[in-house]
Structure prediction request, 656 residues.
Amino acid sequence: MSALAIGIDIGGTKVAGGVVDHAGRVLERARRDTPHRSMSPDVVENTIVEVVGELMSAVPAGGTQQVVAVGIGAAGFVGADRATVVFAPHLSWRHEPLRDALSRRVAVPIFVDNDANAAAWAEWRFGAGRGESHLVIVNLGTGIGGGFVIHGKVQRGRFGIAGEFGHMQVVPNGLRCECGNRGCWEQYASGNALVREARGLILARSPMASDLLVHVGGDAGALTGPLITSAAQAGDQTAIELLAEIGGWLGVGIANLAAAFDPGTFVVGGGVSAAGDLLLDPARETFRRQLPGRGYRPEADIVVAELGNEAGLIGAADLARIDLGSSG
Amino acid sequence: MSALAIGIDIGGTKVAGGVVDHAGRVLERARRDTPHRSMSPDVVENTIVEVVGELMSAVPAGGTQQVVAVGIGAAGFVGADRATVVFAPHLSWRHEPLRDALSRRVAVPIFVDNDANAAAWAEWRFGAGRGESHLVIVNLGTGIGGGFVIHGKVQRGRFGIAGEFGHMQVVPNGLRCECGNRGCWEQYASGNALVREARGLILARSPMASDLLVHVGGDAGALTGPLITSAAQAGDQTAIELLAEIGGWLGVGIANLAAAFDPGTFVVGGGVSAAGDLLLDPARETFRRQLPGRGYRPEADIVVAELGNEAGLIGAADLARIDLGSSG
Prediction:
């Protein structure tokens, strides 16, 4: 029997699940919208159980390949017990015993991790970070998720909460963040930041935004990150500038992380990374200008993630499969 | 024969050396002023060789205890080869082959490390960080040095340059730093920052600074960090406020590092840490206000270093002794 694992990536907007094999291939897929944060934790759990059930039933019973574990990658602070979401800036969880709640409803062992840790693991095992001894991942989605893999180990910190790069302050008294602070990096370099800035241009009735407004049929509220990215790819100058602004802030934070960690490679993932070099070239330029000792020291590569939106679920599944093996 | 090692700590203002035993005790001491950065690298090397010579001659030849290695802790970016100082914001070194240059003039093996890495190691082995699985040290001296020890290993990064926390940007377009950038953390939370702010008050002819000015006989240029600290300890309100301002910025940066690394303990060392809780209480207060997820997550302790000014030389010596053993 070949061991499969289900990975579930719970982000600010989507719950994405997949059946993943030992080589990181996604054999089956399922997804739902993330219940709004005003909903109780139960509602999110129901959604997860639904997705797991759908995926389980897609794997033929009695076949040569069976699902042995479920890995959850959650957009929140996961405790060192790998069971509890202690805090989630974009969800309603506070000290949520996610693993135990799900274990009562799912037949195989469950492992919980931070979504960006899971994505970092996937990119190191199967993606853009293969072979890198000191890898940092920066995931630009609703906010910024982060993770790092040093010498083949996910670094989770003393309390399990390492990698919350998005909540490093880059602007004193800056924009208010959902975490309760001000000036967090993710307020300047994330999908939310991109959409907020574009809508801001529209609300200011800037003629710079008129082409973007046409893209969304005159409804600023309908503007999304992917729409801005596709407009930029089609040559819209304003969309290109908006991505460059986000990219510049990305470079500032990456230079800070390079000063602290000195990794060999930064992998930039998450939805916004679909913009590719329209995002990364401005990031690289700012990074090179901000890096202390630049010109005298080796510099990290900044590359786009290879596993796209599926890094989180692939990594969560792979970590669960491996952790089951080492605990069994 | 019992193995001793010499540790040399090369900071922005002092070259401090000591003969250190296996328990981290300093048996002999020697020190010189750091040659000004306008001097050639040779001059710093001559100073190091002088200090080593003085310490060597203090250990009786043919005795039961002999010096087997020299460890250098340098206030600069040390390459992964542990031999080259690739860049030093406060010294004249650029790609300086420090180990080889010294090896020609010193009879025992030499190991080069970053001064704050050495201090982090010393505090983990013998000081305030004993037993901590995830330790971060923040050394406030001329600038800010940093280091971290995870599960008993100094983390040096992919290129050897990890821990340059002082050059993380905390203020966009902020104060110019010696590293060439703007807004670096060490421009707001270091000994230099403390003295600059105090002198600024004096130059602005603020009545708030009149007591401080008396302390230095009317000469603002004679003001030093230790003088400000002792004034604060004697109850001078302005000196207390200046330390609180530095401490507040210290807390901002520590919250950023906690978001990224999630250590269990921060050890604050370096000259400014002599101010103790006058510095650390404001740092703790800001840290608690800035930490994302505060109230829902375990929080790191912020404690003062135990080995004081000698952490760097003790750590450099101990790392050299241990590295000699593992390479021999």
Notes: Chain A has a mean pLDDT of 93.
